[in-house]
Design goal:
Length: 286
C-alpha cells in the first residue's frame, strides 16, 4: 500500500514550495498537486501554511488523502471501510424527520436518536449513485445495493425504506436507510485522526470529545477496529463518531464491510462505492 496526498494549492503562493511545472492547473487560482505524505517538503508546507493562516491567507484550500493497494494486498484483506463520499447537503431535519436530541452527547452533539422513518426530498438524491451520505450522517442506499447484499447472504444491517413525503405512493423509486445491527465496531486507538492532512496535536485535540463519542474531525489513516463478538457481521457501523456538529452537519459513523459484502457489491456494479482496507484488531490491542 502507498499513500498519496492531493492538495488544492493557492496559485498565488505555490511558487514558494512547488516548481512551476508541478501539478495540474484547475483555474486561475488553484493547482492540484499530489505528493507523498513523507515528502521532504512537508515541514516547509506546514510552516508556510501556518504563517499564511495567521494573515488570513492559505497555501492550500483543500486536501484529500488516498491509499492505493497491490492486487495481493486486496486479495488478502478481510475487511474494508467505505470511504465517506462528500456529505450531500440534504438532511432529515429539513424534510421533517423527527430526532430525539435529549440523548445526544452534550459536548459533541453525536448520538441523537432518529424517531420514525427518515424523510427526505427525492429530488435531492443523486441519480448516478447507489450509495450516498447525508449531511445528517445517514447512509442512504438504492434498491440495487440492498439486492446485491441479499444475493450474497449478507448479515448485520437492516434497511428501512425512506419516506419521500411529497411523492405519490408507488411513484417513487425505493431508497433505503442503512441501519446498523447492535453489533457495532469500536474504532481502535491506532487509527489516526486529525483536522488537516498532517497531524497537528494541539489543533486535532479540539475535535476530540472528552466523553469519547467523537474521536476527531477526519480519519487520516486506515481504519483499525475491534469487535466484542467473535464473528463479524458483513455490514456494520462504528460505535464512535468522526466529524463535528456544524449547522445541518452532524458527526458520522464509519461503514465497515466484510470481503463477502464488498465483493457482492462490486460484482453488482454498485455505483459510488469507494472502499479501502480496514484492519480488525483484538480488543486488548485496541
Amino acid at each position: 500500500m502507498h499513500e498519496r496526498l492531493e492538495l488544492r494549492v493557492n496559485e498565488d503562493f505555490a511558487y514558494r514550495i512547488f516548481s512551476p511545472s508541478e501539478g495540474v492547473r484547475l483555474g486561475d487560482r488553484v493547482r492540484k498537486i499530489t505528493i507523498s505524505p513523507s515528502d521532504e517538503r512537508v515541514g516547509a508546507i506546514l510552516a508556510f501554511q501556518s504563517e499564511l493562516q495567521s494573515h488570513g491567507q492559505a497555501l492550500y484550500f483543500g486536501w484529500n488523502r488516498r491509499r492505493f493497494y497491490l492486487p495481493d494486498e486486496l486479495a488478502s484483506a478481510a475487511f474494508f471501510v467505505v470511504n465517506n463520499p462528500p456529505s450531500h447537503r440534504f438532511s432529515g431535519d429539513e424534510s421533517g424527520t423527527a430526532y430525539d436530541e435529549s440523548i445526544a452527547c452534550p459536548i459533541c452533539g453525536a448520538g441523537r436518536e432518529q424517531i420514525g422513518p427518515l424523510r427526505l426530498r427525492l429530488a435531492q438524491l443523486p441519480r448516478v449513485k447507489d450509495i450516498v451520505h447525508a449531511s445528517t450522517s445517514e447512509w442512504i442506499v438504492s434498491a440495487r445495493f440492498v439486492e446485491a447484499l441479499r444475493a450474497v447472504g449478507e448479515t448485520g444491517a437492516r434497511f428501512e425504506p425512506i419516506d419521500f413525503r411529497r411523492g405519490r405512493k408507488g411513484a417513487n423509486p425505493t431508497w433505503y436507510q442503512l441501519l446498523p445491527s447492535e453489533r457495532l465496531a469500536r474504532i481502535a486507538s491506532r487509527t489516526q485522526l486529525g483536522v488537516g492532512p498532517f497531524p497537528a496535536p494541539a489543533r486535532d485535540a479540539e475535535y476530540v470529545c472528552p466523553l469519547g463519542d467523537t474521536l476527531g474531525l477526519n480519519r487520516l489513516s486506515e481504519l483499525h477496529f475491534s469487535l466484542e463478538e467473535e464473528s463479524a457481521p458483513d455490514v456494520t457501523l462504528t460505535r464512535e463518531y468522526i466529524g463535528a456538529r456544524r449547522g445541518l452537519f452532524t458527526p458520522r459513523r464509519e461503514l465497515v464491510l466484510t470481503r463477502k459484502a464488498r465483493d457482492g457489491l462490486i460484482a453488482a456494479d454498485i455505483r459510488g462505492l469507494d472502499t479501502e482496507v480496514a484492519h480488525l484488531v483484538s480488543t486488548d490491542a485496541a
